[in-house]
Amino acid sequence: MRELARGFPVGALGLGCSSMSHGYGSAERDDEESVLVVRRAVELGVTLFDTADVYGPHTNEELLGRALRPYRRQDVRIATKCGLVVGSDGRFSRDGRPDHLRSACEASLRRLGTDTIDLYQLHRVDPAVPLAETWGALSELVAEGKVRALGVSHATVDELALMHGIHPITAVQYELSVWAPQRKRDVLPWCRRNGVGFLAFSPLGRGFLSGTLTRDSLPAGDSRLRDPRFGPAAMRTNEAIVAGLRAVGADHGDATPSQVAIAWALAQGPHVVPIPGTRRRRWLEENVSAADLRLTEEDLRRLDNLPPTVGEMSWDGARTQPRLGLGHGHGRVPVQRQAHEVPTATGSDCTWHTERGL
Q1: Could you give the CA distance from residue 338 to residue 11 in angstroms, rounded to a whole number?
Q2: 55 part of the active site
Q3: Mean pLDDT for the stretch of residues 26-39
Q4: What is the pLDDT of residues 42-76, one digit of tens each?
Q5: 277 alpha carbon, distance to own chain's centre
Q6: How far apart are CA 30 and CA 266, in angstroms?
Q7: Cα–Cα 20 to 30 A to 32, which of 24, 61, 75, 302?
Q8: End-to-end CA distance of the chain
Q9: Do β-strands 117-122 and 77-82 pair in parallel, antiparallel, or remain unpaired?
Q10: Contact yes or no for 21/53 (Cβ under 8 A)
Q11: Of 24, 55, 120, 174, which is the active-site residue?
């Protein structure tokens, strides 16, 4: 068990659920297997399950609600997100207006089949809305008992400080892995100083760090084909990172690269909870067992000195818009955005998730 913030204990690993509902087209989706993955995760001690209203859109929350229905509500922690919407053309936009967030929360509660969301996360800061208004509206949901705690994804440190001053942040969520360690320099220290948890998504590098991916294994339409980290030359060079994971694993009873990668994320602090995603029980069991892997200081030194990742991380580029930061309305950066209404379209080829790990 780990504590994201005081009074919010969770299992050492969470489960990212988004890839269960989209990312590979309907032929790759298997809702029944995904339900079994979630239920097996509960059996293995996973308590935190991460989703979002935009995943699907909407269908991932419905799937998670169905999968968790047999369990006592107090035994699991449901984390979902709001503030990011996807249109019928697959383009993302942000909506941090209080009215939208309230309606989004009500809709998520219905889809999840629960009265309270344990961790409600702002998926993206909306530069068109003062951040104090957005975060203040979310804090009202806590006061009303519809939400237990608040989190945020992809905010700047200045934005985190502003939000935390209005209402405590329980957890933040960013990409963190051996091949994407950048948040060790800014957000992780801030979390440590302020007693805030850190949900590490993509601890397996979108599946690359599992050592099972090849360029040819990525199907047409897979978003990784548009990511420079997965370009042919980049993948060949980045194999040195996987080789380093294998070398450390060999010193621990042939631990897999995935297990070493997850153990590295766990070693970044007692407030760090990796949330690898998968749609297969075999990978889930392998991932969860990484919680028992204890890396030495020498292991961590070796992993921290692996070659840097080749390829600019662009997986979030289509959804990352210029943002003002504190959202006070001065010197606002123009932002292209769609209508505020949540689209009703289903399906999109612009998803960014992998089967092995978010």
Answers
A1: 38
A2: yes
A3: 88
A4: 999 999 999 999 999 999 999 999 999 999 999 99
A5: 9
A6: 29
A7: 75
A8: 21
A9: parallel
A10: no
A11: 55
Residue of 323 and 196 predicted with greater confidence:
196
What would the pLDDT profile of 140-152 be if each residue is shown by its tens digit?
999 999 999 999 9
Structure confidence by residue, pLDDT tens digits, 165-184: 999 999 999 999 999 999 99
Q: How many CA atoms lie within 13 A of 279 on its CB side?
A: 19
Percent of the chain with pLDDT over 90: 77
User: Which residues touch 207 (CB under 8 Å, ≥6 apart)?
Assistant: 213, 224, 354, 355, 356, 357
Instruction: Specify whether the backbone of 58 is left (phi greater than 0), alpha (psi in -120 to 50) or beta.
Output: left
For residue 205, give every residue at least 6 positions away whose Cβ sits within 8 Å of its Cβ, in sequence order, or none: 177, 178, 179, 180, 229, 241, 261, 357
DSSP string, 58-119: THHHHHHHHHHTTS-GGG-EEEEEESEEE-TTS-EEE---HHHHHHHHHHHHHHHT-S-EEE
pTM comes to: 0.89
Prior bond to 270 cis, omega within 30?
A: no
